[in-house]
Write a structure and sequence with these properties.
Layout (H helix, E strand, L loop, with lengths): L5 E2 L3 E5 L5 H8 L2 H7 L7 H19 L3 E6 L5 E8 L7 E7 L8 H17 L4 E5 L4 H9 L3 E8 L2 E9 L6
Parallel strand pairs: 5-6
Antiparallel strand pairs: 1-2, 2-3, 3-4, 4-5, 6-8, 7-8
Helix pairs in contact: 1-3
Length: about 170
C-alpha cells in the first residue's frame, strides 16, 4: 500500500491497518469522538481490530481510498485520522477527520485533510467533496469551511436519527 501513503510538511499519512488498533481504541474513546461522532462500542484492542477490519479496510479494498492514520514526522506519534468515505445514505464522497485532544488546534486537521482532498482529486477524480457534522461541533464546521466546503442543509442518515449539518464544495448543491 506504499503508493497510497503520502506526506505533508509535518505529517505522514498512511492507510489505517490492524497495527493501529491501540491508537484506534484510544481515538474512538476520546470525549469529543464520543460526543460528536458517537460510541462505536470499541472497548478493547480486539474490538479495535474488528472495527478496522470490518469498517475501514473493506472500503479501502473496494475504492482504493478510505481512512488514513496521521503521524507526526517530528516524533512519529500517531495523532489522528482523516479519510474520504463512501457513506451509506450520503451521495458523493464525504471527508472526515478526528485528532487526539492534545493535537487539536495546531493545524494538523487542515494540513492532512487538504492533502487528502488533493490526492482524491488527482488520483481518483473526486472533485465534489461533502462533509457532515453535528450542530454542536463548531471546530469541525470551521475546518470544513476552511477546506472550501459550504453549509447546504440539515440531513439525517440511515440508522442514525441525529440531525447532521451537510457541507459540500459542489456547485450542484448551492
Amino acid at each position: 500500500m506504499e503508493e497510497y501513503t503520502f506526506e505533508t510538511e509535518r505529517l505522514y499519512m498512511r492507510p489505517t491497518s490492524i497495527e493501529d488498533a491501540s491508537f484506534v481504541l484510544e481515538l474512538l474513546n476520546t470525549p469529543k469522538w464520543l460526543q460528536y461522532i458517537g460510541n462505536r462500542k470499541v472497548y478493547t484492542e480486539e474490538d479495535a481490530v474488528h472495527y478496522i477490519t470490518s469498517k475501514m479496510l473493506p472500503q479501502f479494498e473496494e475504492k482504493r481510498f478510505g481512512n488514513y492514520t496521521v503521524i507526526r514526522k517530528e516524533d512519529h506519534h500517531k495523532i489522528g485520522c482523516c479519510g474520504l468515505y463512501d457513506r451509506e445514505g450520503l451521495e458523493g464522497i464525504d471527508v472526515g477527520f478526528a485528532f487526539l485532544p492534545s493535537y487539536e488546534g495546531k493545524g494538523y486537521g487542515y494540513e492532512s485533510t487538504a492533502k487528502l482532498m488533493e490526492y482524491g482529486k488527482e488520483v481518483h477524480g473526486i472533485t465534489n467533496v461533502n462533509g457532515i457534522t453535528v450542530k454542536e461541533n463548531i471546530g469541525s464546521q470551521k475546518l470544513l469551511e476552511k477546506l472550501g466546503l459550504h453549509y447546504i442543509k440539515t440531513i439525517t442518515l440511515p440508522k442514525d436519527p441525529e440531525p447532521l449539518l451537510f457541507y459540500s464544495n459542489s456547485k450542484d448543491h448551492a
